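Anyone able to model this chain together with carboxymethyl coenzyme *A?
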Amino acid sequence: TGMFTYDPGFLSTAATQSAITYIDGDKGELLYRGYPIEQLALHCDFMETCHLLLYADLPTASQKEQFSKLVTNHTMVNEQMQFFLRGFRRDAHPMAVLTGLVGALSSFYHDSTDINNPQHREISAIRLIAKMPTLVAMAYKYSMGQPYMYPQNRLSYAGNFLHMMFGTPCEPYQVSPVLEHALDRIFILHADHEQNASTSTVRLCGSSGTNPFAAIAAGVACLWGPAHGGANEAALNMLHDIQAQGGVEKIGEFIRQVKDKNSGVKLMGFGHRVYKNYDPRAKLMQETCNQVLAELGLEKDPLFKLAKALEKIALEDDYFVQRKLYPNVDFYSGIVQRAIGIPVKLFTGVFALARTVGWIAQLNEMIGDPEYKIGRPRQLFTGAERRDVPPLDQR
Ligand code: CMC
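re: yes, here you go
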């Protein structure tokens, strides 16, 4: 049994080579295909970011137009999806619904199920990126008992999502450029993050040769957990709880609970496996948070104030300093999403929508690698030694 290296949680094992995303955790640096996240957030939109992740470089103006057009050609989903959706309880968690909907896409595209065929992968990539906003918005509308809104291809990727979320047949949604831009930035910041749990899940799932939709559905399922994508929802719920108990004055007491290892309480939106410095995405998210709250006249938003006070106190506390725990992207993204009007339960769905391109880029990279093999971890066996089955009356 000593043949294999034991590395629970992959703390020191590289499961793959990759040329997509680079993180320097000590410096707090994040690069997509070499470009710093700060520059991408400032100069590019999500469609350009998708092109960059999928095709390894930023698009020219005409490539961008072509790519965006291709995506908008696929924004609708098959009408049958509505009937599938109706089987869910209206109060189902949107991530439960989304896991099902994305998995169900595999049943519609029989022309592109072969993950080993580059053309099949390409069209599946476009379909997934195009349809995720539609599915997330459908899950929301269903939970509200409102009619679904068809996508509007004249709108931007983020603008169309806002339209499908908040428009109704009797009142079209007036897309606010500030909110559209903020949402686009959320998408860019969440687009990829190298070999995190959900991405590794997509790779492992795809390595068996399953179809691309099934592999992405596995990623959605993994992202749901509170230690991963579910942290944005958990972070906002945590802020709500502290606020309900008295707000800023209760931070000290809350931090004491977090430091008590028996309490089981964590500071959600803090800490990261790779970043041992400020998560660069959290900085950009905080900036966006300021812009959105100003646009909406919510500068005095008590939750944002609470979040800033909590961050300040935590960053000065020995417990967090010694463990190098800093805010991660999810600390502020919930406040932005909430200000936009996205319900807390849908936060992780928005994350999934944005991460889809990263999952696909990573999946394509793996399948395109001539050395790729089915992912098959080994184990160190700790169970019973060989023994004989006793007859039922002698057990
Ligand atoms: N609050 C309190 N203590 C923490 C926290 C936190 N948020 N994060 C880590 N610690 C402590 C942890 O208890 C441990 O202490 P000790 O050394 O005394 O046992 C030490 O810091 C090291 O943490 P770890 O759990 O061994 O680190 P990890 O790399 O296994 O976990 C993490 C990383 C992100 C799961 C963890 O920091 C966490 O649970 N954070 C809260 C959830 C969260 O915000 N997740 C979002 C991550 S970023 C976006 C995404 O991936 O989706």
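The longest helix spans residues 118-144.
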